Amino acid sequence: MFHIELVQSCVMWLNLLRIMCALDVMIAAMIMGAAFAAVVYNLKQCHPTRNEPVIDYDIALLFQPMLLLGISIGVTFNIMFADWMVTLLLILLFTSTHTKTLIEFLLCR
């Protein structure tokens, strides 16, 4: 499921990153090729217990708008803020999500 999102995002955002951040064309091609290969591989796979494909296309379409919004915000923040500020924001984000998940886990036990 994630692989389809990655391929859809790569087409649009790698060109944007090449323009804005001077991303090397070879690196962009390797990322796109790896995402495409993962999708092609998973197209042939079946679910281990149900008679369905591994990739759920309905969920992939449902995630697409939020994925594009998150990428847009992330690229904007990366350009707007200094490297140390981006690192600090990521540490705060991951700490808060980790804490919330840990509290929910402890309450479920």
Task: Please tell me about this protein's structure.
The protein is mainly α and 109 residues long. It has one domain (2-81). It is 82% helix and 0% strand. Helix 1 (2-21) packs antiparallel against helix 2 (25-43) and helix 1 (2-21) packs parallel to helix 3 (57-80). It is flat, with a radius of gyration of 18 Å. The model has no long low-confidence stretch (mean pLDDT 77).
Structural class: mainly alpha
Beta-strand fraction estimate = under 5%
Proportion of residues in helical segments:
over 70%
pLDDT < 50 runs, ≥5 residues: none
Number of separate helices: 4
Topology, number of strands:
0
How many domains is the backbone divided into?
A: 1
Report how far the terminal alpha carbons are from each other. 30 Å
Compressed to H and E, one letter per element, the order equals HHHH
What is Rg? 18 Å
Q: Characterize the main sheet.
A: none
Average per-residue pLDDT, rounded, comes to 77
Morphology: flat
